[in-house]
Specification:
Blueprint (H helix, E strand, L loop, with lengths): L1 H29 L14 E5 L2 H10 L2 H5 L3 H16 L5 H6 L4 E8 L3 E9 L3 H16 L3 E8 L2 E8 L4 E7 L3 E5 L2 H11 L24 E6 L3 H5 L8 H8 L2 E11 L2 E10 L6 H5 L5 E2 L10 E9 L17 H9 L1 E10 L10 E7 L2 H19 L5 E4 L2 E6 L4 H6 L9 E6 L2 E5 L2 H12 L8 H7 L5 E2 L1 E6 L4 H7 L2 H9 L1 H6 L2 E9 L2 E9 L15 E6 L9 E4 L6 E6 L4 E5 L5 E6 L5 E9 L4 E7 L3 E5 L11 E2 L6 E7 L8 E6 L3 E6 L11 E2 L9 E5 L2 E7 L4 E5 L11 E2 L9 E3 L8 E5 L4 E6 L4 E6 L8 E6 L7 E7 L2 E5 L5 E6 L6 E7 L5 E7 L4 E6 L10 E2 L5 E5 L4 E8 L2 E7 L4
Antiparallel strand pairs: 1-2, 1-8, 2-3, 3-7, 4-5, 5-6, 6-7, 8-9, 9-10, 10-22, 11-19, 12-13, 12-20, 13-14, 14-18, 15-16, 16-17, 17-18, 20-21, 21-22, 23-54, 24-25, 25-26, 26-27, 28-29, 29-30, 30-31, 32-33, 33-34, 34-35, 36-37, 37-38, 38-39, 40-41, 41-42, 42-43, 44-45, 45-46, 46-47, 48-49, ...
Helix pairs in contact: 11-12
Protein name: Outer membrane protein assembly factor BamB
Keywords: Membrane, Transmembrane, Transmembrane helix
Organism: Pontibacter toksunensis
C-alpha cells in the first residue's frame, strides 16, 4: 500500500511538472515580445514598416521605384520573393501575409566587406501560424528549394537554398516571430543575444516615439551613428574615413520618420548627442543654431559643403595641442575674432584624378580687427622664414599668402585639414581661405558674376526645404560631386556607382542637418530631385525658334558676348560684306559696324571707362579694334599694325585684375605683338618672334605672384614667357609631334605644382609643369595612321576639356581621364568641328559640325542626339545655359540666316 501511494504521488508530480512546463511554454509563445529587443547593437540602420503595399505604391508614383527596382540587390530580392510566393498556399498569399504588418529590417556590416540584412516578422494569429506552417512544408516538398536544419545554442536554425537562383537564407522562430537573414552569421548573433538575460531594446531612448501613427509616414528609421562609419568604410577610401568618423561622433543614435513626395525623400526626427570624450558634440557643445549666411558667397559649382553654426565657433578648434607652436598667440587672437559660422566647401572637379579644391569660410565679428591680425601674422611668418610678405590686389580685394601649414586646422579643428599653405581674403564679413591662389581668384570671380547659391533658382528652391538654422549641416550635389565620389569610393565599388549613375544624379540635392533642441538634435535629411516642371515630353525640344534674315551670307560663327549695359547674353556675327552685327538676347538686331574685312580669332570683352561698361575688342588682318555698345570705335582705336601683317588671334590680359589691360596678337609667321589700351607697344614684344605659327590663342596664367604667357606652336614646341617676353627656364618644351590645338592648365601654388596638358596630332597626351619638366606621357588608342587628335577645351575657357579623335568620318571623344565617352560615324571624311560646352554639373553638351553637308549634331554627355535630328549650320554654334529657367539657347548660322533656338533637355 505505501509503495502504491508513493508511485501515484511520483506520477502526479511528473504530470504536474509536464503541465506546468507546457503551460509556461504555451504562455511564452503567446506572449508578444518587442521586436526591437531582437535587433543586435551592431545594427547600423533599422527600418520599421507597417504598410508595405502603400509604401511601394507611393514609390511607384514618385518614380523612385522604377529606379530602385533595377538595382541588383532589389532584383534578387524580388526574384526570391517570387519563388517563395510560387509555393505559398493560395494566390499571392505571401504579399498579403506581409502587408499591414510591423516588420523590422536591420542593416549590418558583416566581416570586412559585406552588408547584411535581417528581417523580423511577427506571426500574430492562428491563421497566420497555419499559413507559415503550410509554407514551410511546401518549401520542404518543392524542387525549387533545398532545406537543412541545425541546432545552435538550443535554437533550431533552418537554412533554405533556392536551387535556381543559388541564393539562401537562414531563419528561426522565437515566440511566434520569424527572424530571417541571408547571413547565417547575423542569425547566430541574434541567438546569442536571446540567450543573454533580458536583452534590452536598442531604441530605449525612443521608447515613446511612434511616427508610424502619423499621416503620410511610411517608415521609422533608426540610425546608429556609432556604427555608421563602419558601413561607410565599405564604400569610401581610407583617405576620407578619419573625417567621416569624427563627423559621425556628433550623435550616438537617432529615430527618424520617412516621408515621400513627388520629387523628394524626407526623413526627420531627433538624434541623441554623443557623450563620449573627444566627440564632435563634446567639442561643439552647441546652444543656439545659426542661419546659413554664407550662401551669398558659395559658388554654384560647390559639390559638397560642411557648415557649422555655433555661437562660439572657436570651440571647433578644441582640443588644442599642449605644445605651443609658432605664431600661437596671433592665431589664437585670430580665432577669437570669429563668430557664428564656419564652412568648408569642396568645389566641382572635371576629372577623377583631380584633387578637389577646398574653400574655408569663417564669419567675423570684427572684420577690421581680423584684417589687422592677418597683416600681423603675415609679417611674423615672413620674418621667421626670412622672406618678404606676399599680397596681391585682385580687383577690390587684397589677397594675402600665409605660409603656415594647416592654418585652418589650427583655427577651426581637424575637419578643415588639407591646406599646405593658405591664401586669404576678406569678403564683407567673411574670411575666405584656399590652398591655391587660382581657387581664390575663381571664387571672387563667381561672387562678382553672382554665380552663387543665393542667386541660383534651383539652389534657392532647395534651401527653402531645408532647416533655416542648424548647428551642423552637410549639403551634397551629386552631379557636381560626381568625379569626387568616383575619386574617393573604393575601387571595388566604383562599378556599382557607375551602374547607378542615373539614379544618383537624378536625386542630386541632398542635405543632412542637426539643430540643437533642448537635450537632443532635431535632425533633417532631404534627398531632392530638382524641379523639371518646364520639361514637356513628346514634343520637339527645338520647338522655340527665332529667325533673322540678312542681305549677305553670314561668314562667322555667332561670337558669344554680353550686353554692355545689362550683361545679358548676346552674340555678334559678320557677313560676307564685312559688316559686324549685334544680335540681342531677345533675338533682335542691335548695333552694326561696317569693317569691310574679316574678323580674326574671337571677339573679346573688357570693362573699361569711368562707367565700367563693357567694350568689344577684336582683330582683323592688320588692326585691333575696340568699339562701344553703339558700334563706335573708342578712343585711340583702331590700332594700325602694318599692312604686311596677317593677324591670327587676339588675346586680352589683365595681370592684376585692375583693368590695366594688355592686348596680344600673333601673325601667320609666329610673331607676337603686345600693346596697352593707349596703343603703346610693350617692351620685348615688338615683335617677340616664335619659330612657327601658333596652334591656338596665347594664354595668360597667374601663378602666385608670377605671370606666365603660354604659347603653343603648330610644330609641337611650347613656350612659357614672362611679362617682358623672356622664356622661363626649362622652356621651350618639344612634344615631338605637330599640335593643332591649345593646352589646358591646372594652376598650382608655384611653377612646379602648376600642370599643363597638351595633346599632339598623333594622340600623345603630355602633361608638364611650368619648370619645364615633363610629368606624364600617355598614348590614346590610335587605330590607324589616319587617326588624328586635338584637345577641345570648354567654350567658356575653363579648365575642363575633352579630346577628339577623327578617322575617316568617325569621331571618338575621350574625357580628361582618357576614357572613351562615345563614338559616332558621319557622312563625309572631311575634318569635323568639335565644340564642348560645360556649364557645370550635368549641364554639358557637345556639338559636332560637318562643314561639307553643313550639319551640326548636338549631343548630351552620354552621346544621345538631342532632339533626334541635326541642325543646318555652316559654322560653329554658340550655346548659353539659363540656370533660372533650366533651359538652353543656341545660336547658329546657315547661309543668310541666323537662328536662335531655345530648348530644354529631357530628363
Amino acid at each position: 500500500m505505501p509503495k502504491r501511494i508513493i508511485f501515484f504521488f511520483l506520477g502526479f508530480v511528473v504530470i504536474a511538472l509536464l503541465v506546468y512546463f507546457g503551460f509556461n511554454r504555451w504562455k511564452d509563445s503567446r506572449e508578444r515580445i518587442d521586436l526591437w529587443t531582437l535587433v543586435p547593437e551592431c545594427a547600423v540602420l533599422v527600418l520599421e514598416t507597417n504598410n508595405h503595399e502603400a509604401l511601394i505604391e507611393h514609390l511607384r508614383e514618385t518614380e523612385l521605384w522604377q529606379n530602385f527596382s533595377v538595382l541588383p540587390f532589389a532584383q534578387r530580392f524580388e526574384e526570391n520573393m517570387a519563388s517563395l510566393d510560387s509555393v505559398a498556399p493560395g494566390s499571392e498569399r505571401l504579399s498579403r501575409f506581409l502587408n499591414e504588418k510591423s516588420i523590422l529590417t536591420s542593416i549590418h556590416v558583416v566581416g570586412k566587406s559585406d552588408v547584411g540584412f535581417v528581417y523580423y516578422v511577427p506571426v500574430t494569429s492562428v491563421g497566420e501560424l497555419r499559413f507559415v506552417r503550410t509554407l514551410t512544408e511546401n518549401i520542404t516538398k518543392s524542387t525549387l528549394f533545398e532545406e537543412s536544419t541545425r541546432d545552435y545554442e538550443d535554437m533550431l536554425l533552418t537554412e533554405v537554398t533556392n536551387t535556381s537562383l543559388g541564393s539562401s537564407f537562414t531563419y528561426f522562430t522565437y515566440r511566434n516571430n520569424i527572424v530571417l537573414s541571408p547571413s547565417p552569421v547575423l542569425v547566430e548573433e541574434i541567438v546569442r543575444r536571446l540567450n543573454r538575460t533580458q536583452p534590452t531594446s536598442i531604441i530605449e531612448n525612443f521608447r515613446n516615439t511612434k511616427y508610424l501613427d502619423q499621416p503620410d509616414v511610411y517608415a521609422n528609421v533608426f540610425v546608429n551613428y556609432r556604427a555608421l562609419p563602419e558601413l561607410l568604410g565599405l564604400f569610401l577610401a581610407d583617405e576620407v574615413m578619419p573625417e567621416v568618423r569624427y563627423l559621425s561622433s556628433l550623435c550616438q543614435s537617432a529615430m527618424l520618420q520617412l516621408k515621400l513626395s513627388r520629387d523628394k525623400i524626407f526623413l526627420n526626427g531627433f538624434s541623441v548627442p554623443e557623450s563620449l570624450k573627444g566627440s564632435l558634440h563634446q567639442a561643439m557643445q552647441p546652444q543656439k543654431p545659426q542661419p546659413l549666411g554664407v550662401k551669398a558667397y558659395l559658388p554654384t559649382r560647390t559639390a559638397m559643403l560642411l557648415h557649422f553654426g555655433l555661437e562660439d565657433i572657436e570651440r571647433l578648434r578644441l582640443p588644442q595641442p599642449q605644445k605651443q607652436a609658432a605664431y600661437a598667440a596671433t592665431i589664437d587672437s585670430l580665432a577669437d575674432s570669429f563668430s557664428q559660422e564656419a564652412a568648408l566647401a569642396y568645389l566641382e572637379t572635371n576629372s577623377i584624378n583631380a584633387k578637389p579644391e577646398k574653400v574655408a569660410f569663417i564669419h567675423l565679428s570684427n572684420p577690421a580687427l581680423t584684417a589687422s591680425l592677418l597683416k600681423s601674422l603675415s609679417q611674423q611668418v615672413a620674418d621667421t622664414r626670412k622672406q618678404s610678405t606676399f599680397s596681391e590686389q585682385y580687383g577690390n580685394y587684397t589677397i594675402r599668402r600665409l605660409n603656415v601649414p594647416e592654418l585652418p586646422v589650427r583655427l577651426l579643428g581637424s575637419v578643415f585639414e588639407g591646406f599646405e599653405q593658405s591664401y586669404v581674403v576678406l569678403v564683407d564679413n567673411y574670411l575666405v581661405l584656399t590652398e591655391e591662389m587660382i581657387t581664390l581668384r575663381g571664387l571672387l570671380d563667381d561672387i562678382s558674376e553672382e554665380n552663387v547659391w543665393i542667386k541660383s533658382v534651383a539652389q534657392k528652391a532647395f534651401l527653402e526645404e531645408t532647416l533655416q538654422e542648424a548647428n551642423f549641416s552637410l549639403y551634397l550635389n551629386t552631379v557636381n560631386a560626381w568625379y569626387i565620389l568616383n575619386r574617393y569610393v573604393e575601387d571595388v565599388e566604383r562599378d556599382d556607382l557607375l551602374q547607378n549613375v542615373a539614379l544618383i544624379k537624378r536625386f542630386s540635392q541632398i542635405s543632412l542637418q542637426f539643430s540643437k533642441v533642448e537635450q537632443q538634435y532635431y535632425t533633417s535629411l532631404v534627398i531632392r530631385r530638382p524641379d523639371r516642371s518646364n520639361i514637356t515630353t513628346g514634343q520637339d525640344v527645338f520647338a522655340a525658334e527665332q529667325v533673322l534674315q540678312f542681305d549677305s551670307r553670314l561668314e562667322t560663327r555667332p561670337f558669344p558676348i554680353q550686353n554692355a549695359l545689362d550683361r545679358s547674353r548676346e552674340v555678334v556675327v559678320q557677313d560676307s560684306a564685312g559688316v559686324l552685327f549685334n544680335i540681342t538676347s531677345n533675338g533682335r538686331r542691335g548695333w552694326a559696324d561696317t569693317l569691310g574685312t574679316a574678323v580674326r580669332g574671337n571677339v573679346q570683352q573688357i570693362a573699361y571707362g569711368p562707367e565700367n561698361k563693357l567694350r568689344y575688342l577684336f582683330a582683323t588682318a592688320n588692326r585691333i579694334h575696340a568699339i562701344d555698345n553703339q558700334g563706335q570705335e573708342i578712343e585711340n582705336f583702331p590700332f594700325n599694325l602694318g599692312d604686311s601683317l596677317d593677324l591670327q588671334h587676339l588675346a586680352v590680359f589683365d595681370y592684376e585684375n585692375n583693368k590695366d589691360y594688355r592686348l596680344l596678337v600673333d601673325d601667320n609667321m609666329g610673331n607676337l605683338f603686345m600693346y596697352d589700351l593707349r596703343g603703346a607697344p610693350i617692351q620685348g614684344w615688338q615683335p617677340r618672334r616664335m619659330d612657327y605659327k601658333l596652334a591656338a590663342e596665347p594664354q595668360h596664367l597667374r601663378v602666385g605672384n608670377r605671370d606666365v604667357i603660354l604659347v603653343v606652336l603648330e610644330n609641337g614646341y611650347i613656350y612659357a614667357l614672362n611679362r617682358r617676353g623672356d622664356t622661363y627656364p626649362g622652356f621651350p618644351i618639344n612634344l615631338n609631334a605637330p599640335v593643332t590645338s591649345g593646352a589646358v592648365a591646372r594652376i598650382g601654388s608655384d611653377l612646379r605644382s602648376t600642370e599643363v596638358t597638351a595633346v599632339t596630332r598623333y594622340g600623345n597626351v603630355v602633361t608638364f609643369n611650368l619648370q619645364g619638366k615633363t610629368l606624364k606621357r600617355e598614348q590614346l588608342p590610335r587605330p590607324s595612321k589616319r587617326a588624328l587628335f586635338n584637345l577641345v577645351p570648354e567654350s567658356s575657357g575653363g579648365r575642363s576639356y575633352i579630346i577628339a579623335r577623327q578617322e575617316q568620318g568617325q569621331v571618338t571623344l575621350f574625357d580628361q581621364d582618357m576614357k572613351e565617352l562615345f563614338s559616332k560615324r558621319y557622312v563625309t571624311s572631311a575634318p569635323k568641328i568639335v565644340q564642348y560646352f560645360n556649364f557645370g554639373g550635368a549641364n554639358s553638351l557637345i556639338a559636332v559640325t560637318e562643314t561639307g553637308p553643313q550639319k551640326t549634331y548636338l549631343y548630351d554627355s552620354r552621346g544621345n542626339l538631342i532632339g533626334n535630328r541635326t541642325l543646318e549650320s555652316s559654322q560653329p554654334v554658340t550655346i548659353y545655359f539659363n540656370e533660372a529657367s533650366n533651359n538652353y539657347s543656341l545660336f547658329k548660322v546657315f547661309r543668310r540666316e541666323l537662328k536662335k533656338i531655345d530648348f530644354v533637355l529631357p530628363d
